[in-house]
């Protein structure tokens, strides 16, 4: 059971961080993960008054606040136009609409869960996370960072020419994924992200494999390289061998769909 001694609702990010630094403090997102934990909390910090529930276009960036819900990501037209529907695809399997109405962007990224559909997709978008007080960090770097007392305030996507495809494999709808795969072409740079390995998502650079475009041969060579380097494992949902087979299929499907989106054939 989660036992909370003090609930606080700071009015500034500085105040929130002062609480976050105290022993046994926890920042609250939608509490969907937290509520399943067995722990004693001294200060539970609710960020609801910090205006972090907005999706905003600022100059050449899209800023997604930490308190934006997964449902808002799923239904936001601008984000889904920019990502050719990949954001919607990455969250639509997560439990159900009522759940996605509560789960937040901040909790989903900060948790760096191995099974995360959300982390996989946002890594493929090559975005940055804004941490208080550390500042902006690339999401790929953040995925490997130690857990600190920082508060995640925003996720920032650069508005540059972007094509992205998201796919996942589940044993049954709404379950945790067995494997996640996102591929992107951003400013002519190819990246493939594989998550739910079951370890957290990792990025593989595909530039040298797709210099001559997305062809069956190039996909085959790239997949061979990914499978030889990527650490896949077994858990209660799938074996390592099954994940290897699924990875091969998802990478091929994702690149073929990316090709269709980029070149229209
Ligand atoms: C039953 C179940 C099934 C799920 N299935 C999937 C799935 O299939 N795919 C998938 O991708 N995800 C899945 N999730 C994860 C879910 O989508 C959310 O990512 C998760 O619940 C965390 O979001 P939250 O807003 O509830 O965060 P919380 O539970 O409130 O917080 C999670 C962690 O993040 C910290 N935190 C929250 N916000 C911040 C912040 N702004 N700054 C710093 N730290 C912060 C909290 O202190 C806590 O440690 C599942 C979760 C559950 C409970």
From TrEMBL:
InterPro entries membership: CO_DH_flav_C_dom_sf (IPR036683), Diverse_Substr_Oxidored (IPR051312), FAD-bd_PCMH (IPR016166), FAD-bd_PCMH-like_sf (IPR036318), FAD-bd_PCMH_sub2 (IPR016169), Mopterin_DH_FAD-bd (IPR002346)
Pfam entry (one): FAD_binding_5
MF terms in GO: FAD binding; oxidoreductase activity
Organism of origin: Faecalibacillus faecis
Protein name: Xanthine dehydrogenase
Domain spans labelled FAD-binding PCMH-type: 1-162
Keyword annotations from UniProtKB, A to Z: Flavoprotein, Oxidoreductase
